[in-house]
Design a protein that fits this description.
alpha/beta, Rossmann fold, DNA polymerase, domain 1, seven-stranded mixed beta sheet, 12% strand, globular, disordered C terminus, binds S-adenosylmethionine
């Protein structure tokens, strides 16, 4: 028997499945390589949905206007995801520009990097790093010592992460209760849940998601005879614990959000990122941040206000920007998005960047 051809040109055989359409995510094949099925992707987009395996960049036009990327610029995408924003920024900063793109997700990042490279962005134009954006200042200290002209952070999770049941982000399909952006780090949501007392879980649900039924849910979820290890079991237990089914779906969403924030330590990462952000920007440099819930937006708003008061930002968004009605119709996943921006002040003559990093 001859050895299989290792050539990357040969398309991979799709998984076998029973019946007319694949049922399990692992058996699906378009979702794992959407770029090969352009016509299907167009059809799904036209119906107002996000094709699985892809992510639609939110408030793209507004972000491009605010960040105003110019040829030759040094840009940072702190949350590369599918690379939708990155692709536009990369095109706008040519010739001569460079995008430094980071993401914590080891599963999606190589696919996105391969897609962007295939579009013609080599390493001297696009630097990709798998890391938490909390460490951005350290990366820029060597990768862009003068700072960036613009930084984008589009917080939260990507559609690819949500749509893959094996990642545990969705309660709409059965999967392990994981919820980590980097499954190789920290503990899964199942392990966290198993380790919490009712009092601690109630606190977590309140602090991370303003869950109004936190006490009742915490009691129910810590009194189960067996550990909760799958997404659908958790969703079923939440529904069963609440008296009104109308309340239940929002609570399911909020409990998943609260656990996701906890296992990824999202607030600590965002606080660190916001604290070091001014030193990541050149004088006059711009930052835009998309948030998806009040815990994120509050942090961004306060950090920008404090930065303006301390003279680190010359101007900041007075009001939050929201997606247009058209965008919301075309992409319901944009519904909770809020966009804030700031512009770095020119440092005074006595500016001491070492003191800033120590702050
Ligand atoms: C909403 S998606 C970004 C989508 C992207 N703008 C696009 O157009 O495709 C958010 C991404 O940020 C990543 N992420 C979230 N928190 C992170 C963190 N603290 N450090 C690095 N990446 C993070 C997630 O893994 C996810 O891929």
């Amino acid at each position: 028997m001859s050895a299989p051809d290792p050539s990357p040109e040969r398309p991979q055989r799709r998984p076998r499945y029973v019946g007319k359409n694949p049922r399990k995510f692992a058996e699906k094949y378009k979702e794992h390589a959407p770029e090969r099925y352009a016509a299907d992707v167009e059809k799904v987009l036209a119906s107002g949905k996000t094709p699985a395996g892809t992510h639609r960049p939110i408030m793209l036009r507004e972000i491009m206007e605010l960040l105003a990327p110019q040829p030759g610029a040094t840009a940072v995408d702190a949350t590369l995801g599918y690379g939708g924003h990155a692709r536009e920024i990369l095109a706008a900063i040519q010739p001569g520009g460079r995008l430094i793109a980071v993401d914590a997700d080891p599963i999606e990042l190589p696919k996105t990097e391969a897609r962007l490279r295939a579009l013609g962005f080599p390493p001297d134009t696009l630097l990709v790093r798998r890391m938490n954006f909390a460490g951005l200042a350290q990366l820029l200290a060597t990768a862009a010592p003068g700072g960036a002209d613009l930084v984008l952070a589009d917080l939260g999770v990507s559609s690819m992460q949500i749509d893959n049941p094996a990642r545990g982000f969705t309660f709409k399909a059965d999967g392990p209760l994981d919820l980590r952006m980097n499954p190789a780090r920290g503990q899964s949501a199942a392990a966290l849940l198993a380790s919490l007392s009712a009092v601690k879980l109630e606190k977590l649900l309140t602090e991370n998601a303003d869950e109004p039924h936190a006490a009742r849910l915490a009691r129910a979820l810590t009194a189960t005879p067996a550990p909760i290890t799958t997404t659908t079991v958790l969703a079923t237990l939440i529904r069963a614990a609440l008296p009104r089914p109308a309340d239940a779906e929002l609570s399911v969403r909020r409990v998943f959000q609260a656990l996701r924030i906890a296992v990824n330590d999202e607030f600590a990462a965002l606080d660190t990122f916001l604290r070091h952000l001014p030193q990541c920007l050149k004088p006059g440099g711009r930052i835009a941040i998309l948030t998806f819930h009040s815990g994120e937006d509050r942090r961004v708003k306060h950090a920008f206000k404090a930065g303006e008061r301390d003279g680190l930002y010359a101007t900041i968004a007075r009001d939050v920007l929201r997606p247009t009605a058209n965008e919301l119709r075309a992409n319901p996943r944009a519904s909770s998005a809020k966009l804030r921006w700031a512009r770095r002040a020119a440092p005074p003559a006595s500016f001491d960047s070492a003191a800033l990093s120590a702050k």
